[in-house]
Design brief:
This protein has 11 helices and 13 strands. With 387 residues, the chain is an alpha/beta fold. Helix 6 links the parallel strand 5 and strand 6. Helix 1 packs antiparallel against helix 7, helix 3 packs parallel to helix 4 and helix 8 runs parallel beside helix 11. Bound molecules: pyridoxal-5'-phosphate. The site of pyridoxal-5'-phosphate (PLP) has 13 residues, from helix 3.
Length: 387
């Protein structure tokens, strides 16, 4: 990384990546950078075998028994669009969790002429009220959509309990695991998740441009993108076969290989060790921010100290854009504003200005946090002298 930049924006994308992610992606591109499923030659067979091995590994990581139920997409946004637009029909009712990203809210908005939505009840931190969830699911509720971990305040929703309730009530459960994957263990089948959307470039430490959707056994999706699949080319209509029917067009195979390397890295360290490192850094940040009198902190501590490493704050008397600019000018990479999650900010009452979000990663250090805290303290003191 460039000298003296302190990167604290891992909720946007993890950076840097593990060395093995760079290396495996590079090797694959050089040796097997051909288009798989399109021809019949040794190079292609080998490349396809590597992609299949990665698909198996990624499926296993999420507790998915049948790897064919894992559809590769280019990111979580496409996975969520596929789940919503390919899974919902006219007159369906959808219950929406309180901390959604625009990658859920905008597809739902686009579907609003055919689908009705209501919001699940929650507390002030955006934690779901499980008793209400049980009451709010009606026979018309086709789907419950929940963001496992918030990209604004890090609140983590209890997957197992949510899954049990949705299964008992016969409602489809769609989980957005963009922030949690790689930070919190997820077993899609054990948790009764029907649709699990994830992105490869955040906590999973893979390259940008790959994500996926697990499609559970109860689900019959319609494809939302039509095109070449490398098989059944004589058919005019899009095949529905999992996974290829839902992966039309050329796949980002180097990113898939890089994602598998990211998962190998995570497994070598252990998800809980990664989560615990982030939790230590966030605790340090939180304690330091509590010394800044004007600061209001938005962070939710989970009971078992699981952490995706996300904390937001505002500073009284400061406009978010202004603090963001000062911090950026000092080479801290943090994210100010709404973080593509106006829905979550409405829940936290931080709409429309948003917050400054700090998200250390596995490669961040206590020194990074201390330098950041020192800058925030200097900035607030300098303002005091100006006024
Ligand atoms: C909670 C959440 N959902 C979905 C997304 C979308 O991820 P991607 O941009 O990789 O599609 C993000 C990215 O910030 C996110 O934080």
């Amino acid at each position: 990384m460039k000298d003296n930049i302190i990167y604290l924006d891992n909720a946007s994308t993890s950076f840097p990546k593990p060395e093995t992610v760079y290396r495996e992606t590079d090797i694959f591109l050089r040796k097997w950078g051909v288009n798989i499923g399109r021809g019949e030659n040794r190079l292609e067979y080998e490349a396809a075998a590597k992609v299949l091995e990665s698909r198996r590994k990624i499926a296993r990581f999420f507790g998915i028994k049948d790897y064919r139920r894992l559809v590769f997409t280019f990111n979580a946004t496409l996975a969520l669009n596929l789940a919503l637009k390919g899974g919902l029909k006219k007159s369906d009712h959808v219950l929406v969790g309180p901390m959604q990203h625009n990658s859920v809210m905008r597809p739902l908005h686009a579907l609003k002429k055919i689908v009705s939505t209501s919001e699940l009840r929650h507390d002030k931190d955006g934690l779901l009220d499980l008793n209400s969830l049980e009451e709010q699911i009606t026979p018309q509720t086709k789907m419950v959509v929940i963001n496992h971990a918030s990209n604004v305040n890090g609140v983590i929703q209890p997957l197992r309990e949510i899954g049990r309730i949705c299964r008992d009530k016969e409602s489809i459960l769609l989980i957005d695991a963009s922030q949690s994957a790689g930070n919190i263990p997820i077993d899609a089948e054990e948790c009764n998740i029907d649709l699990l959307a994830f992105t490869g470039h955040k906590g999973l430490m893979g390259p940008l441009g790959v994500g996926g959707l697990y499609v559970g056994e109860r689900i019959l999706l319609e494809p939302i993108i039509e095109g070449g699949t490398g098989f059944a080319s004589e058919l005019e209509r899009q095949p529905r076969n999992l996974p290829e029917g839902f992966e039309a067009g050329t796949k980002n195979t180097p990113a898939i290989i890089g994602l598998a390397a990211g998962i190998d890295f995570i497994e070598s360290i252990g998800v809980s060790a990664i989560s615990s490192h982030k939790s230590t850094l966030i605790d340090r940040l939180k304690v330091g921010m509590e010394d800044v009198e004007e600061a209001k902190i938005f962070h939710f501590d989970s009971e078992n100290s699981e952490s995706c490493g996300v904390l937001s704050f505002t500073i009284e008397g400061w406009n978010i854009d202004d603090i963001g600019k000062v911090l950026n000018s000092q080479d801290f990479v943090v994210r100010g504003g709404l973080q593509c999650a106006p829905h979550a900010h409405r829940t936290l009452d931080t709409f429309s200005e948003g917050t400054i979000r700090v998200s250390p990663g596995y490669f961040s250090s206590e020194h990074d946090i201390d330098s950041f805290l020192q800058s925030v303290k200097d900035i607030t003191v300098s303002k005091m002298y100006q006024t």
